[in-house]
Amino acid sequence: MTEPTLSCNGLGKTYQTAAGPVTALDKVDLEIRDGEFAAIVGPSGSGKTTLLSLLGGLEKPSSGGILIQGEPLQRRFRDLSDYRRRQVGFVFQAYNLVPHLSAIENVILPMELAGMARRRRRSLASELLTSMGIPKERFGHRPLRLSGGEQQRVAIARALANRPPILLADEPTGNLDEATSDQIIALLRRMTETSGLSVVLVTHNPRVAGSADHVVRLNSGGVESDRRAA
Amino acid sequence: MDTVIRAAKGALRSSTRTLIVVLVLAVGLSFALTSVALALAAEDELDKIRKTTGVEASITVNPEQFQQAISAALEEAGGDPSQIDREAVDSQIEQLTEDHLTAIENLPYVRSASGTKTQPVDYSLPGQEDEEQATDPEPTPNPGGGPGVVIGRTPPDAVLTATDDADFLTDFAAVGTKQLVEGRLFDASDESKNVVVIDQNTATTEGLEVGDTLTLKSAAFPGEEGSDPPEVEAEIIGIYQDLETGSEGGFALNISDWYTPLSLLRELQGDSADNSFDAISVVVDTSDDLTRLESDLEGIADPDKFTLQTNAAELAQISDPVETMRNTSIIVMIVGLAVVGTIMVLLMALVMRGRLREIGILKAIGAKSRQIVAQFALETAGIALVAVLIAIPSVLATNTFLPDLLRPSAEASAAQEQGGPQFAGPGGGGGFRAQLIGGPNVADPVRTEDIEASLNKIDASLSPEVIGAAAAAAIGLGLLGSAVMMVAVLRLRPAEVLRMEA
């Protein structure tokens, strides 16, 4: 049996606050397989976003560990920025595009940071944006001139710029209408089927969760249920 | 290259804001640069002043020596001045000699030194007999250290001041009290020649011109009793006008001041020539060397018997306002840079608040902290550099405004110096007591226009040093801005800022 693309054992996160330590996540075990479309659901404050931040290397866990194809994250990537650049792509509810860069420049940015050649990164960015359904004439537009759906598509293209095997999305359809939301989910779904990309998304939307291969329900920082579609 | 382009895009993301930042910085930097230029120019001027002003000193016989010797001789003579034993007086006075001069010349920081000697003389014109004196009593030594004036006889026609180096005749300096109207002063080529520079009053009265000759004879301290002092024929090489007393030279009793090489004076002294000096004038490398000179003189001559006179007051008069201007410029520079630095830090802090999300995004997509810091450092340095490029022509365009504002009033400085307490000279404790009495080589208080001239030399011209300072300021400000960035980048938790609504 092949190792899961991404997994965690006993993962925990405790924040030190003025009022004392607050445990956001406690002893979470999870496995994400190659090409899997996984949804993390749960009520507000259940630790969904914290889990995603830990899986994406945006924060360091207080306990437990993350494994990449069975290998501890820290051993494989001494610098977490390397992990974030090569292994995972991030999509946020608020899109988080750089406002003074155009759509295509936002997509090029991670390639630039990875040191990819100038000509190659521009053609790759064009390909990605086209595959996300962004018309060519919109490539030069700044984020504020794009619709919410277009911004999220550009954000997904940026997340996939360095061809990471894992895409982490925090409520990617939270700011979108239902039709656009469906389009985005369909797009992500297609990516898992065509390129073997593993997608882990946090959602409150039952329709989105219903379309996932794997649903993990969190409650009070722990895993309440973990089920895969038959 | 990518980082540079990203930095440029970041700087231009809001052209209006960037323009305001650049202009604020440019104004602050203009003040700072002008102040740097002024401070450097003032320092340069101070250096020149230290090398040219207050570098002169004069060593003379302490008048107390004469007073003590005369008092002792008078007591010996039963209180009758006519019975004073002149030889006894002379033997008690320690004179300045060639040995002293040589020792002083050998001091490493002494640029030049020369002995001066004065001698009263009578003169006669060619074909004219010298008028016989009515009486010829013994001369009374001058308690001031100068040549004796014979009581009860006709005063001498002139007092010769002799030296080997006419450069030491400060009366003829640019700010001196005497000005040549015809001919020249003697120089090294006149050594051993019998030449003399006379006053315009005598020249007019006697119808003398440069090239004429006259016969000189010592009027005091004659040689051996019964023998006439030698007569020396001298050629007039220069005629001067006394600027203080109109056309008249000399002092009370209308005795003229004339100037000759030392060799002529020794010849006039004949057998009584003792190779002594009334004063030794010294020029040191910088005014700072005066303290060393004072200390070294203690090993050369008895501090109780000789007096060191300096131009320290003149130095203070000229250098104090320049120092004031330099110090004010440095304060303005520090304040300017502090204001610019504070503005920079505040602006960067403000910019940070608006760009935390951008930093979070960069971190989330895998940018290393150094890549982010480099981008923002280049952005800040670029803004600072543009501000410097604007500030430099601004300084050139307005380089009279700030200097005029910071330049102290020469009149006020002169008044303050002259009215204030007199400078006690270097040292002041034991040993040589530097005095400010107007000796033969110690200049009078500095004129207001001289102070003004020094102050006017200080301008805000942009030298390579100032351009270098500007570049350093730009780099410094860039680093300062980067430091703010560095702290923000290192402390930022991307998960926190990216979770927020845009």
Question: How is this structure best described in words?
Answer:
The complex is a heterodimer of chains A (230) and B (502). Chain A has helices spanning 48-55, 73-76, 80-86, 103-113, 118-131, 148-159, 178-195, 206-210, and strands at 6-17, 20-32, 37-41, 63-68, 71-72, 88-91, 166-170, 198-202, 214-219, 222-228. Chain A is an alpha/beta fold. In chain A, β4 and β5 (71-72) form a beta hairpin. In chain A, α4 runs parallel beside α6 (148-159) and α5 (118-131) packs across α6 (148-159). Chain B folds into 2 domains: 2-51 and 320-407 and 458-499, no CATH class; 94-306, no CATH class. Chain B has helices at residues 2-11, 15-52, 63-76, 86-92, 98-105, 200-206, 262-269, 289-300, 312-364, 369-397, 401-406, 410-419, 448-456, 464-491, 494-499; strands at 56-61, 96-97, 110-124, 158-163, 178-183, 195-199, 213-218, 231-242, 256-261, 276-277, 279-284, 306-310. In chain B, the strands form 2 sheets. In chain B, strands 1, 3, 4, 5, 6, 7, 8, 9, 11 and 12 form a 10-stranded mixed sheet that branches. Chain B is elongated. Chain A binds chain B through residues 49-50, 53, 56, 58-59, 79, 81-86, 90, 92, 94-101, 105, 109-110, 112-114, 158-159, 161-162, 170, and chain B through 2, 6, 9-10, 12-13, 357-358, 360-369, 371, 493-495, 498-502.
Essential attributes:
heterodimer; A: 230 residues; alpha/beta; Rossmann fold; 2 domains; 6-stranded mixed beta sheet; 4-stranded antiparallel beta sheet; 8 helices; 10 strands; globular; B: 502 residues; alpha+beta; two-stranded antiparallel sheet; 15 helices; 12 strands
Task: Give me a quick take on this structure.
The complex is a heterodimer of chains A (230) and B (502). With 230 residues, chain A is α/β, with parallel strands linked by helices.
